[in-house]
């Protein structure tokens, strides 16, 4: 364990609980009342599990919904804003702080929640300490004493937490919060860029707005004369309905392909990066998490920078990203790209569309682990524009994709800085002026 900075003390979680600094320390173990798969649906109380936590964020929108009548039978496990979540079962050591929210939210058996007296212990500081090497090593030590991959609530109470004076806690939380805010801003920018690309895709290739405008004798909105000239001014009836004149009906496989190149772990270079399904966010083109190839035991698929990675396992999770680098990925990820470069933007947004994801979900096979295969996915029917129109769209969205990739790398760099600052701030090795200087340099 590291030495504590002046004024700090190390307490067990049990001691903090007995002193009232930690007000509540519970998990989502509901015993005989634990929900069954059939108790979940599209409507209900969000049910947060370890899988809902990624890089300090909580995917509330994507969490399973427990039926309201089933949730009413539970007397605990309901979290509040400011509660600190720690995953302790199967997936160990993920941490997040509950944001403000309306209604009720429950935690599953894989999570513990900590509710604290915020006049003595700041939630963001506690979450930061839980993420530190110090605490993560304590979790690993407990797991090393058992064959079960878990740190039960009784064992957690024997773990130690460094508690600095409240003003130091606040500074550490604010310092790390500055980085987190910057990372969140980059993710929000990416969301906006994705929305622009989606809106333009829908306008050109789904609603055919430029064609409709010209058919009515109007000038298409939001484009110059040269771009407008690429679109026809009439429709023709084809097998998919009314289609812009000169365009054709086809399938995804006409314009896109998937690579099948694989590599064994023994042939992977040390610097090769790995992307698993767990790293791909839902409904976002920006990949914001990845890992090294250490510990991989089976063959993986190879991909290049710019390839479109499509999660084929449980496709309804909508996990599709543009690869920001070359690497290897899980074989549960399809590595896709355009057959012709001019169709790249069209293919990327077609794969990212909710319509194609819904199609993939309908065709997925397997009750417990539904997967879609490329043969079925490639048969997805679509209207294919002429290459000139596809090329113009690619030219428009290419800078958006480039900015998304740049933001992904910047967010990763900020996250690494955060991880570097965290143990030094907690231990007192990094003084406040030094931390401020580093923050100013990176956030300038």
Automatic annotation (TrEMBL):
InterPro entries noted in UniProt: Restrct_endonuc_typeI_TRD, Restrct_endonuc_typeI_TRD_sf, Type-I_RS_S_subunit
Signal peptide: none
One term of GO molecular function: DNA binding
Gene Ontology biological process terms in this record: DNA restriction-modification system
Keywords for the protein's UniProt record, in alphabetical order: DNA-binding, Restriction system
Domain Type I restriction modification DNA specificity: 81-194
Domain of life: Bacteria
Protein family per UniProt: Belongs to the type-I restriction system S methylase family.
Name used for this protein in its record: Type I restriction modification DNA specificity domain-containing protein
Upper lineage: Bacteria, Pseudomonadati, Pseudomonadota, Gammaproteobacteria, Pseudomonadales
């Amino acid at each position: 364990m590291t030495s504590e900075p002046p004024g700090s003390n190390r307490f067990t979680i049990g001691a903090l609980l007995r002193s009232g600094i930690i007000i509540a320390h519970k998990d989502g173990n509901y015993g005989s009342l634990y929900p069954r798969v059939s108790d979940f649906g599209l409507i209900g109380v969000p049910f947060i599990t370890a899988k809902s936590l990624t890089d300090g964020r909580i995917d509330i929108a994507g969490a399973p919904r427990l039926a309201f009548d089933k949730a009413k039978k539970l007397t605990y496990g309901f979290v509040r804003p400011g509660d600190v979540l720690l995953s302790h079962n199967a997936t160990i050591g993920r941490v997040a702080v509950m944001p403000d929210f309306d209604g009720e939210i429950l935690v599953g058996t894989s999570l513990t929640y900590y509710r604290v007296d915020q006049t003595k212990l700041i939630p963001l500081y506690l979450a930061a300490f839980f993420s530190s090497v110090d605490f993560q090593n304590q979790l690993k030590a407990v797991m090393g004493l058992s064959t079960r991959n878990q740190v039960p609530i009784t064992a957690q109470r024997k773990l130690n937490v460094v508690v600095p004076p409240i003003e130091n806690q606040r500074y550490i939380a604010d310092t790390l919060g500055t980085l987190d805010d910057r990372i969140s801003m980059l993710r929000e920018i990416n969301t906006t860029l994705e929305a622009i690309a989606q809106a333009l895709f829908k306008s050109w290739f789904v609603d055919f707005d430029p064609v409709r405008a010209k058919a009515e004798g109007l000038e298409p909105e939001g484009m110059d004369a040269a771009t407008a000239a690429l679109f026809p001014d009439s429709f023709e009836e084809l097998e998919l309905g009314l289609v812009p004149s000169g365009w054709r009906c086809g399938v995804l496989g006409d314009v896109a392909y998937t690579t099948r190149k694989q590599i064994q772990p023994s042939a992977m270079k040390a610097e090769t990066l790995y992307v698993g399904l767990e790293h791909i966010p839902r409904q976002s083109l920006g990949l914001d998490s990845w890992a090294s190839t250490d510990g991989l035991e089976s063959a993986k698929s190879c991909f290049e920078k710019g390839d479109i990675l499509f999660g084929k396992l449980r496709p309804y999770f909508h996990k599709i990203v543009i690869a920001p680098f070359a690497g290897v990925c899980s074989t549960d990820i399809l590595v896709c790209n355009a057959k012709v470069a001019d169709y790249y933007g069209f293919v990327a947004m077609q794969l990212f569309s909710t319509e194609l994801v819904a199609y993939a979900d309908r065709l997925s096979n397997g009750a417990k682990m539904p997967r879609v295969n490329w043969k079925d996915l490639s048969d997805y029917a679509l209207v294919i524009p002429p290459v000139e129109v596809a090329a113009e769209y690619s030219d428009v969205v290419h800078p958006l994709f480039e900015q998304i990739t740049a933001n992904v790398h910047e967010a990763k760099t900020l996250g690494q800085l955060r991880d570097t600052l965290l143990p030094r701030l907690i231990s007192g090795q990094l003084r406040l002026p030094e931390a401020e200087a580093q923050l100013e340099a990176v956030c300038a």
